[in-house]
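Recap quiz, item 2
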Amino acid sequence: MDEEEPKHPWLPSRPTVGAVLVAHQGGRWLPKVLSSLADMEYAPTAWRVIDVGSTDRGADLLRDSFGADRIMYAGSGTGFGEAVRMGVESLPPTDWIWLLHDDAAVLPSTLAGLLDEATTSDDIAVVGPKVREWPSLKRLLEVGLTITSTGARETGLEPGEPDAGQHDWPRDVLAVNSAGMLIRRSVWDELGGFDPDLPLHFDDIDFGWRVARAGYRTRTAPNGTIFHAEASRRRVRPHAVGDPKPWEARHAALHTVLTNTTGPRWAWQVVRLFVGAMARVIGFLVAKDPESAGDELQAVRAVYGHPRRILEAKRRKALHARRSHREIKHLLAPFWLPYRHGLDATMDVVVGLVRPETVETVGRRSSAPVLGSQGPDDADDLDDGPSLLRRRPWLVAVFLLLVASFFAGRGLFGGLDGASLLGGALPASPDTAGGWWRLMVERQHEVGLGGTGFAPTFAGLLAVVATPVWFGPGLVVTVLMLFSVPLAGLTAHRLGRLLTPHRPTRIVWAIGYALAVVATGAVAQGRFGTVVALVVLPIVVNTALQLVERPRWQVALRLGIWWAVAAAFAPIVLPIGLVGLLGLLATRRVSGRDAVITFGVTLLLLGPWTWQRAVNPWRWWWEAGYPAPGHASVVDVVLGRAGGLGAAPAWLGAVLVVLALLALVPHATRPAVLRCWLVALVGLAFALLGACTTMSLPGGREVVPWVGVPVVVWVAGLGTAVLLAARELIGAPRILLVPITIVALVMPVGTGLWWLARGVDDPLERARPDVVPAFLTARPGDVLVLRGTIADGVNARVVQGAGPYLGQEALGLPSDRVDRVRAVVERLLTRPDAQDVRTLASVGIDSVYAPDVDPDLEARVDAAPLLDRAGSDSARSRVWTLSVPAGRDEPTAAPWRWISSVVLAVLWLAALVLTAPVRRRRVEPTFGEEVDDE
Amino acid sequence: MSRIDPGGRAGRRPTLPGWLMAVPVAVAAGAVALGLLVGPASSPATPAREVRLDRGSYACPGGLATVAGQVAPASEATAQSFPAVRSESSVPAKARSVTQLAGRPGTWRRATTPAGSTVVTQLGRGTGPLGFVSGRASQPDGGGLVVAGCPGVADDAWFPSLGSGSKHQSTLLLTNTADTPAAATVDLWNTEGVVDAIDNEGIVVPAGASRRIRLADLAAGEKQLAAHVTRLRGALTVSVLDTSTAVYRGTDLTMGGMAPTRRQWVPGLSAGVKRRTLSLVNPGQTTARVKVTVLSARGRFVPEGLSDLKVRSGRLREVTLPASVGSGAATLQLTSDVPVVAGVRLEPDTVDFARAESVPPLDGTAGIPLGLAGTNRTPRLLLAGVGAKDSSVELTAYDASMKRLDRATVTVRAGRTQDVSLAKAVKIDGAAYVLVRATGDVVGAASYTNSGRVASLPLLAAPVRALGPHVSVVGP
């Protein structure tokens, strides 16, 4: 121990200290504890040891160490406070009382350090040591305590925070741990010791709170240090009859808060803690922790079922109170702390639920070093070892992809106020996440012509994800679009772990997949649905492989969830996945039950918006975002490109096709390679089908579908075939290995360089929504936007406000209004009449905007009565305003429409809960089962 | 989670025959071949198409006998008299309903309309509203016979043979049928080139009003003028009242002819007319070479001197048709290397003149009103076959309640003009109008006369259909 020898100003008039050690089943820790007590440089004046029904060797150790005359025995079930009371009453009168636990070891200078602080002022009633973790010794557990308004024990430390002297100054606190607590005897007697209603938990905080209310101070003494195993809290103490039940911890928290809160706040706390407890019960049930939920209910019953006991304790404590709540308020935790803890806990639960595979950790504490074998401050210097690139090549790769994403997305970050990532098929994001929430629950959508249809399922998912960034939901879209490469790489690499143990090829494969997403042109063209689906697709495959390997209904459920997520953004994933599922079913790799669960869950979670697409199956091609037409040729598809702006040079894909053909050659890997080819062929078939057909959209428009998703399925299948065959090259002669490696790197390296050089803008851009000029958005009615020419056809869009945001573009419009507008626009552009304009006004339109006007169209609109020319925003655009006021008769959906969204949300929640593992409380070892790790 | 065994499931190593590796390649190649065979799809073209109109309106110059009708019974009809205003800043009086022309949409109605302009609007899909005016102009206005159709809203109108001199005055009749102001620009040409007119751009007609613009106010002193009226905005109808008080005096009202084109026909050159003057306007940038072919009753020929008429760019040229054209009924066929506008001024004697306008082949149903005020009861019908084959023309006579009285079919030989006496072709006793439908390429005009006065009414199909765009309503 390297503690410096302090100067002790109290030495001339040494204060007397009576030590009380309470032991209960502490045989595991007592040898070290007793050894540390024997080495103190300043020992207590008197000792009392209370053994509470120990059935292990602890009783013998205590007897051997202290002698029978200093030991008292208490029956099983005796609380800590009661045991201390017994010890204190049997002690001779002393100035101070020092409380010790059987799982807390001290340093030789601990008591002296406590007395150094305790004797600095007469109003100091309690002094507590710095508590470090045992057996790690280096981590801080407590340097003073307080309590939140929700009854949570708060240390103010980060979990696992190492002790580097950062808290080594004495300060006033609300309470200190009873392990090592030094109490002025007179105050102890005045306050009557610990609350007898708190047998084990929160007795220290309750006592500290009462000390503060009585006008005394509680101080920390960092010069005094103890090492605490926290055996009771961690439930590592062998169980004995009469031990407090798990729920009593929560009961003690509620009891402490309700019996020490004063004034009007008490009534508020009574209600708040009850409501909070019910919310915690629901939270525990959602997180599949029924035992904790039961504990919460038990605690509520114990507190709220005995109001007289609470009131009596409150009155009793008030007798000694001399300071108001305001005077001690600074010692309590800030009001916002419970909410931060709640957010942290929620995030932990969500992360645990969405994690695609179980990740086991060793926890935050190591069990390697033990007290005595290593000094508390003897930290080993770790060898730096190999470079980070060699130790964590994937981590380095991800970092580089992130940096590259920043570079490729140049010009698309930041921007003007109100600017949003948009362009191509991507509409702007809503102003707040509330826009997506509103879309899910509103009866009548705020879009042109007043949509009343079901909201798209992906809007609900975006709402959930964007809620933490409420005022910047565009951040979610930006991250998904501009960082799609590292995101897809992460999910692909996780899948790659199942495919090959060979790390370099796996990393190249994952990066290749990630770059395939951007190589299709999906990002530059604003194909948000494709991007999200391709990020999620490796997780779907990963989960499907897990289902094949471990056929459990929970895995089937999880597969259904991820499949639904991908299909919600790109519905074409549904039929592609269905082909895959039928393939697995046909080859008996999944059971019929699991297949039904998977498909059924997917259909249920996709909800009515997707079901509507079944009426016109070709609309499966329409993804999240505008249905901008695709431009893929057959050659584009074969070479892994979906055509249009922002697609990588097609010849880069030719290399992959050649390698995939070569991958069929090795005999050993041929079965797996053939399976990959099968997957690739499914993608190819869908891609060709899409490229060679057109889909009909609502409103009568027909476009060639965008085939980004099946193209990447084709590319990923070929890439995986190459990956699996690559292991046959291990050990191959260098003359063969080098050229193949170079060829294999052509596609990812070439695509990566192209990505960096071109960037991902055009038509994607960061700008304010410009569907209509800003001055038209301020008008009370909707804007009829006309694009196209009389000769080649005109597209009419009715825009409300600044135009639709992501999710609104997918809403179905009332067919009667669509037909009405189509007919009236046809007439308007053929032989206009005043009645036509009045009809436009009747559906809420009060202006007409032609952004790139066709002269013939302009002449025809000009001929319409009741239309006035207005100033436009550019030389090529024209604006007309209606001379008649726009009508406000918006269509309304059935009152129950919002219920469908609620049901959908419940289904998603239920699926997530069901797929999560049930949490079980650790079973405490009984005596004899205890494993001594020393 | 165990890794996927690249060789198959753990514990067994299936041996697959070598030919199996060709299967995916063959399937992929087959799929690609099929794709190449079918070819990549493209968004289907959505060209403009003809749509049946369910309403229509036209404006008839006021102060004349007006006939409002349709080729099929309409469901509703309204007629309002729009007052004439002197300037764009004038506030027009409130429009008045012309009850004789409103209502009874299943009949042909007649009324003498107030001054200004009368706008008739009819509802009903494919009813083809038609309006005509007739009468005799006062002596100061030439005292000639006027028979003309009532124009609907058009993007532009061409008038090849006008004037702004002291004895040849032309007046633009502009009617704004809408509730918002309309505007137009007038471009003028004479035989020397483009006329530098005054206040000819942005001529505004207030909402619900008509306005008369004398060409003399834009460019005075021009004996011969050609005009092009371009609608800038608003719903504007255009017609021209042309009067002459010279030796060859008279009056005519016209809706204008075809826009500049390389091939056109001018029917309605009735028999016995002493003087026929061809007006040609070349608004283009290069000299036009025009060939005039005469379709007479005996066949087609090119008169001497008319095989290669040069019309310099940006100029009006007037050519008196030579005697070799003959005095019988005829139709002119004009072909040129650049688009030109053409029309013929007919001067049977010194009492009146008429104007034969260029028209497209009849595509639909045209109406010929009978018993117009100021005319003989029955006009003559001049039909010309302009196609390669003979055509047939169906003539159907109706009474005012649109009850069919008689039907006849006339064969029109290709390349010839046929002068048909309606009274002989069909029974017209009690008939109010005759509908003309052609099978084949036929152009024609109805020629009205009365006491030496003459008027020509070109056969134009009633507006039943119009070229409309294919409209798609895309999402929100």
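The longest strand of chain B covers residues 330-347.
Helices of chain B lie at 22-38, 215-218, 422-425.
End of item.
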